[in-house]
Amino acid sequence: MSTLQIGLAIIGGLVLAGVVAYNAWVTRKSAPRTVRERGEVRDDVAGEEPPPYLSADPADREIERIEPVLDDGPAPSVGSTDAPAPVATAPVSITPIMSQPPEKRPGLDALIDTIAPLQLEHEVSGDALLAALPGTRRVGSKPFAVEGQSETTGEWESPRAGQRYRALQAGVQLANRSGPLNDIEFSEFVVKAQAFADAVGASPDFPDMRAEVARARELDAFASGHDAQLGFTLRARRTAWSPGYVAQHASRLGFVAGALPGRMVLSGNQSGQAPILSLVFDSQAAMAEDPEQSALREIALSLEVTHVPRGEQPFLRMRQTATALAEAMEGIVTDDGGQPLSNETMDRIGADLESLYDALDSRDLSAGSPQARRLFS
């Protein structure tokens, strides 16, 4: 073999090696970032505990999605696209949000319920009341409830076995995200409350239907004009993320696994309070056979404004969280249309929210209160 042939063979080999190396580099660059990248290894031993975006034990890790309503019956989903559209306060996305179970179910309130006293001739046991309760604790799309005045504490509460009650009241919520109480629903409320009263020997005193329906419409008009759900989208600038990579960075900021795959929540400071923020990504990627090979190009960060107390400074924390995640994962914060959100836009959103909080406070429906959580559900 001549010197020329040997030289050409060597050059050909070097070119082939270069092509192979380049293809390997491209493949590596296009693979999603994982928790093991750049020395970021999980503290727990593989196989001992599921990743933080998947729940391990429902009793320990899972945060249930429970509506803040008065009964145990089925309820309309929060933030569904069929609900009355909230007033837009900024070019941000709207996403459903998951809430934690409250310690104590909020009671009937004349501010957002129509209430009918049920007069008793004598005290009645909680066991008798529980046996007489209707099977469905809803009137149309509104929650229906019965309360008794405790003989021992004098407070109104849901009937409990072993207790005795000297007064009763039945109520139905005036409005929620499905709309105001209408004539048909009020009539159904009367029928259901009357049947319960007959079963326990009580005499109901129902309010005027026209007045209550008009009150329901006015409350619904206010709620429709002051509902707000904010959402930011974090998009990868270059390399995609794996679910574990996202969960690792979110966990460092205080997020924990939610009830559904691909959902994490940032809990509030008070027990029973709704989560301050929710972080959501593709659930199919989270449930993939090998989640670390799933590629995420975007994740959503959302805030249910009316469900979180103003004192938690939820928007400030949302803004700081979005910025921190974007910097740590080389992403960019945008609206749902892909437009980057500038500091000026963020400032306008914050100012709009302060006005919203003031309006809610003026109606005794402060954000995060039991009344607000029920009304905006």
From TrEMBL:
Residues 34-45 have a biased composition (Basic and acidic residues). Gene3D superfamilies: ZipA, C-terminal FtsZ-binding domain. Keywords: Cell cycle, Cell division, Cell inner membrane, Cell membrane, Membrane, Transmembrane, Transmembrane helix. It is a single-pass type I membrane protein. Its main location: membrane. The chain crosses the membrane at residues 6-26. It is found in: Cell inner membrane. Residues 32-61 are annotated as: Disordered. SMART domains: ZipA_C. InterPro entries: ZipA_FtsZ-bd_C, ZipA_FtsZ-bd_C_sf. Signal peptide: none annotated. Residues 226-353 form the ZipA C-terminal FtsZ-binding domain. Essential cell division protein that stabilizes the FtsZ protofilaments by cross-linking them and that serves as a cytoplasmic membrane anchor for the Z ring. Also required for the recruitment to the septal ring of downstream cell division proteins. Belongs to the ZipA family. This is Cell division protein ZipA. It comes from Hydrogenophaga laconesensis.
